[in-house]
Amino acid sequence: MRGHVAGAGFRRTSRPAGGVSSSYASAPPDRPGLGTKWGEKRISLVGTVSFERANFNRPFAVAGIYYNCEAGIRAMAGTVAWQRSVPILAEPAAALVTIELRDQSGRMLPGLIVGDRWFVVGEEGRRYTIVVRNRSDFRLEIVLSVDGLDVIDGRPASFRKRGYIVDPHRKLVVEGFRQSTEAVAAFRFGPVRESYAAEKYHNTHNVGVIDIALFNEAGSDPWTSEEVRRRLKANPFPGRFATPP
Question: Whole-angstrom Cα distance, residue 177 to residue 10?
């Protein structure tokens, strides 16, 4: 890939930075809990492909995952009973995409769902990846941010930023903040004061949240009349009697 192309997004390919001045004069006060650090360099190849959004400024689904240390998650969850469960996207996006946070050994990070918020438990010093699976029959553009920063350009996140293009029934693995078309800086949990947001911009206001925005391609409709009919006709009790094996 040689730079951005208008109307295009990045495509993650198989395995084989410039600075921004801060508008803050001093570092913010220290905060408890976890942030995401600018980690070690990891090989991650991308190229550009053409992708025209059905609606450039409005994703058809968005979701946020809040992360922290276990003590922080307990405090954030308040009086809700503590349980470990896997966060899932709310409908209708859940039928099209799944999102996971996995640690450096590939294990899914434990989480907690409280109302419409998802909380994931991290551990200081551990590397993590964001895994997005496209379960639909069409391409999707995935725009991701960590601690309020776009994972591709490292600047404040926006729906107008371009994202990664994921083919039907394929998965996207995002290992870090993109340094170039060939490498990323790994996501690592660390103290808030050592987070990329704090060190780069001296701003920790959005530390602790991972956001995803999903865009479908022009000419595609995630909710066709056929799919709507299939869901409305779904039978929770399709079998009347037991049958032998």
Answer: 13
